[in-house]
Write a structure and sequence with these properties.
This protein is mostly beta strands and 139 residues long. It has no helices and 16 strands. Strands 1, 3, 4, 6, 7, 9, 11, 13, 14 and 16 form a ten-stranded parallel β-sheet that branches. Strands 2-5-8-10-12-15 form a six-stranded parallel β-sheet, with no helix packed on it. The termini are far apart.
Length: 139
Amino acid sequence: MAIFSKTEGATGQPEAPERAAPAGAAPATVIGPKARFVGDFSGDEDLVIQGRFEGNIVVERRVTVAASGEMKGDIHARSVIVGGRVHGQIRADERAELLASASIQGNVNAPKVVIAEGAQLQGNVTMSTAAPVQKKEEK
């Protein structure tokens, strides 16, 4: 599996962006499709959830919940893309995008919100400027 190079899937077509990143892209942490993470997560790099995640996330960049991903907890990031299931609050400083395969139980707060046809949302959408992500003090 090549994370930092363009790869082709079994069909000969390039894999989805959640699996392959262009050369020179910012580093990302990936919770794989067969992985389960329990606990809080914070960082200064992208986070991609393809498996199960239980806890709260504070990331200074982008959080992507892939179509296969399941998230129970709150997300606060610069931008959030959801294609899977989220049970919790979403706060994005710049943009939140709910793909057609998204299923969300919770509120979404972001200055820009894109909701694709077919996305499911049980909650409220607030389009206002969110407080910037705060770095946690290192101990």
